[in-house]
Amino acid sequence: xxxxxxxxxxxxxxxxxxxxxxxxxxxxxxxxxxxxxxxxxxxxxxxxxxxxxxxxxxxxxxxxxxxxxxxxxxxxxxxxxxxxxxxxxxxxxxxxxxxxxxxxxxxxxxxxxxxxxxxxxxxxxxxxxxxxxxxxxxxxxxxxxxxxxxxxxxxxxxxxxxxxxxxxxxxxxxxxxxxxxxxxxxxxxxxxxxxxxxxxxxxxxxxxxxxxxxxxxxxxxxxxxxxxxxxxxxxxxxxxxxxxxxxxxxxxxxxxxxxxxxxxxxxxxxxxxxxxxxxxxxxxxxxxxxxxxxxxxxxxxxxxxxxxxxxxxxxxxxxxxxxxxxxxxxxxxxxxxxxxxxxxxxxxxxxxxxxxxxxxxxxxxxxxxxxxxxxxxxxxxxxxxxxxxxxxxxxxxx
Length: 398
Fold this sequence. Notes:
Layout: E1 5-8, E2 11-13, E3 16-18, E4 23-24, E5 28-29, E6 34-36, E7 39-42, E8 46-49, H1 57-68, E9 75-77, H2 83-86, H3 89-95, E10 100-103, H4 105-114, E11 122-125, E12 131-133, E13 138-143, E14 153-157, E15 162-164, H5 186-189, H6 191-202, H7 206-217, E16 223-225, H8 236-247, E17 253-260, H9 266-282, E18 286-290, H10 296-305, E19 306-316, E20 319-320, H11 322-333, E21 340-346, H12 353-362, E22 368-369, E23 374-376, H13 385-396
Parallel strand pairs: 8-9, 9-10, 10-11, 15-16, 17-18, 17-19, 19-21, 21-22, 21-23
Antiparallel strand pairs: 1-2, 2-7, 3-6, 4-5, 7-8, 12-13, 13-14, 14-15, 19-20
């Protein structure tokens, strides 16, 4: 069934949602699915911005044909060459062999790698600030290298203020009943997934995001059309501010995230008791997660949100409990900065994980680590309450 939704007078969304895919990039769980957005502008010349993932190819191609209504497709603009957006390029080019592919030099290097059969298709290579005019619309190109691939770019429609933003300003989550962010309670439905998407997919490239945000600040943007998630036409400043915070690793709030690993439940029990006392003492938001049951991508999203992280880690083979170690690796790989940490360790005969956790946290830029470390010998008991209270007091004021 055709599903086309209007963005502006002659601009339409022709994408689709995938609720069957279990993991994005075969890594990140998708409890609410994901959308793949493609846009078409029906001007004197017709132009499509990106295609879609092969998983929704039937829906996508049906939408494309219906939107064109028998007209030729003149331009296919390739903003991003990641396969979840480029998988239909060769198919579309075969359907409309007279079209012109538009991209930058790096785009076409990648296109030849993915689709060598497209080398005979007409190409228009664009650079920073180059324009494509289709009649009443002029699209100005903004290069966005490493947001989050080297060929990524934006297209700004100077006639109506629409920014086609590639993977920037995207989010996990299928589009249910409309394409606009203001049609949802975004903070409840999408904000955590938008943050998780940013932190895990783009997080490492904060400097590059900052660079392109500075370019975008010079544009009179009225609508943002990302390749995943809803379209923005209201409260743009609010969402752009989120990107400003996320790309500079500035916490959104002053809350605590408590992350524990536990083999048999004793470290879990200690972490839960600690969290309850911390809530009472600090009066702040405290959220608790089991590192073995919560996928690391959700933990990374929470770490990006909050300013203070407390890690309860058992000693395992004289080292760091493996899921905690993997999370620490992700933090470093994504270039996490500017967080406050506290550490608790457990060990039945030779607790040693804490020192090793601190060593890894110390390598993060701008990390502040509480000197007071809680050491648990197998389990916490009533006789340890004073020690726990001291740790809670130190964490509450860090």
